[in-house]
User: Fold this.
Amino acid sequence: MFNITAKDEMYLRMQAMLRNVVPDVELRYKAELAAEIIRLKQEKNAVILGHNYMEPALFHSVPDFVGDSLELSRKAAETDKDIIVFCGVRFMAETAKILNPSKTVLLPSEKAGCSLAASITAADVRELRSRFPGVPVVSYVNTYAEVKAESDVCCTSSNAAAVVRSLDSPTVIFLPDEYLARNVARDTGKHIVFPSLAPGHEPSSELDYQLIGWHGRCEVHEKFTLQDVKGIRAQFPDVVILAHPECSPEVVEASDFSGSTTAMIRYVERTTAPRYLLLTECAMGDNIAAANPDKDMLRLCSVRCPHMNQITLEDTLEALRLGRYVIDVPEDVRLRAARAVTRMLAVGAQRGEDTSLD
Ligand code: SF4
Assistant:
């Protein structure tokens, strides 16, 4: 009698989804890891959350929930499990901890940071407040807890313009992504300035600016250029190009659609085009291709997020085995950060809109 093991079952499940995306020899190895992760997850009463940028073999095997960081944080907030393993980057795991402080939150790699989140500190925000007294601060969720704690409200890539409008303030400080800020300025018709990093060189008070930006960039999305878009359209005239709002305004304008990761996934699912190209982390194209075998996805895989790619099945297994790396947020910081995140959720709820992240 032939006995099907958990490992075999996992391999068959992954093969059904990934046979056109991941070579079989790798699938067998990864299925073994995934089966052990699932066993440990049950033994330790854990839930695994997987961000849209995770590599296909992880994304389509071990997570209980997949999605953008806000969707995953909401799942984290609702869970009755003892441990939350966040397969994403540090600021996302922190947001889960901010929203659900009684749980143990684990991030499988200590190196899973983010260039945007690292571009600004709490001291930078305090200094901006002193340079522009009384001006409200909107922080993108791709920031660390200390920065959220200094902010009035957070925003996502899909509700940024709505959050700015909701403040009903003539001037708003918008941090830290330069390109998202420029895209929001275009959407809201506001003038934007980027103050010098050295205090004492303030923008002219004569200037009719309404948005004050910062100098942060996503090291993935800043790499896409207008030349890339033109070159791809010349080679594939029927391609539909989707750009994340962390891309430059020139790239966003030259694209057919711009939205958060979840908005891009929905767009591909709900439309029929000869082929698509996503200007975002390459793994997401693989994940959409696996889930929608009828859709033709082009990929620019020389552009990868080094932080998201730190999270592997091997690290996830070790995270569960060893209970590492624990994400903690000091309670005074957490309480202030929670206020900014909750205020953002209230703006999204009022509009009944998608509040997708990253
Ligand atoms: S893709 Fe960009 S914004 Fe997202 S984690 Fe990587 S560096 Fe940060």
Notes: Residues 89, 114-116, 142, 218-220, 281, 305, 307-308, 358 surround iron/sulfur cluster (CB under 6 Å).
